[in-house]
Amino acid sequence: MKTETVRRQKRFTELRCRTLDSWSCERRIISKIKLLPGKKNLRFIVTNLPGEGGENDGNKTHFRSQEFYEDFHCAQGAIENPLKEQQMNLFSERFPL
Fold this sequence. Notes:
The chain has one domain (about 10-90). About 25% of the residues lie in helices and about 30% in strands. The chain has one helix and three strands; from the N terminus they run E-E-E-H. Strands 1-2-3 form a three-stranded antiparallel beta sheet, with helices on one face. A hairpin with a 2-residue loop joins strand 2 and strand 3.
């Protein structure tokens, strides 16, 4: 019996988009596509930060799709998660000691 092996794959891409009414300007949409055996995981980030970095940015690769997602977006989530956990503990019936 032949079994098919599916490798994990992760890809980043981006596109530019504009809405008719709700956005005042064109936005950059970064997408992460992760393929796992038996499923796929899609993530999208909407930003107006440029992909080529700012004028005074020493690292011009700073905001490219993959770097932006992994270095900036994921780091922001890592900061927010303990804050959310602390807030949930404050409103729980028993505070863990």
